[in-house]
Amino acid sequence: MDELIEGARAAREHAYAPYSGFKVGAALRTRSGKVFYGVNVENVSYGLSICAERSAAVAAVLADELEWDSIAVVADTKLPTTPCGACRQFLAEFNPKLSVTIANLDKVHYTISLAELLPHAFNTETIDS
């Protein structure tokens, strides 16, 4: 997991956050072992911004890597910051049991499952009932 955390930390340096200054990096590992990186990219129309987690996820989809194992997310916060609700739902589309490691720049980190972060995700079972 340290490799994913370090990858997310390095990716974070490339985030585009001119409005908030809140840079986030993510590293998403697929079951095949490939790692995809993402950063948050802000927009003057703030609702059009994209989070680091979804940025990494889109890169994996583009490479046709749809089976995900784990993700690490790094931000410069006192305590590690969890993915936002939109990112949780987006990630659950591909693996509701995804392992999520969150870390800060001081190397404080912990791992939790996406199912624990989003216990009642909207899914095909919900809409097919």
UniProtKB/TrEMBL annotation:
Residues the record marks as active site: 53 (proton donor)
GO BP term, example: nucleobase-containing small molecule metabolic process
Cofactor(s), by name: Zn(2+)
A Gene Ontology cellular-component term: cytosol
Domain CMP/dCMP-type deaminase: 1-125
Enzyme class at the top of the EC tree: hydrolase
Residue numbers binding substrate: 40-46
Catalytic activity of the protein: cytidine + H2O + H(+) = uridine + NH4(+); 2'-deoxycytidine + H2O + H(+) = 2'-deoxyuridine + NH4(+)
Annotated TM spans: none
The keyword Ribonucleoprotein is annotated on this UniProt entry: no
EC number: 3.5.4.5
Keywords attached to this entry: Hydrolase, Metal-binding, Zinc
PROSITE patterns named in the record: CYT_DCMP_DEAMINASES_2 (PS51747)
Binding site for Zn(2+): 51, 84, 87
One of the record's GO molecular function terms: cytidine deaminase activity
Family: Belongs to the cytidine and deoxycytidylate deaminase family.
Function: This enzyme scavenges exogenous and endogenous cytidine and 2'-deoxycytidine for UMP synthesis.
Name of the protein described by the UniProt record: Cytidine deaminase
Organism whose genome encodes this protein: Candidatus Chlorohelix allophototropha
Primary gene name: cdd
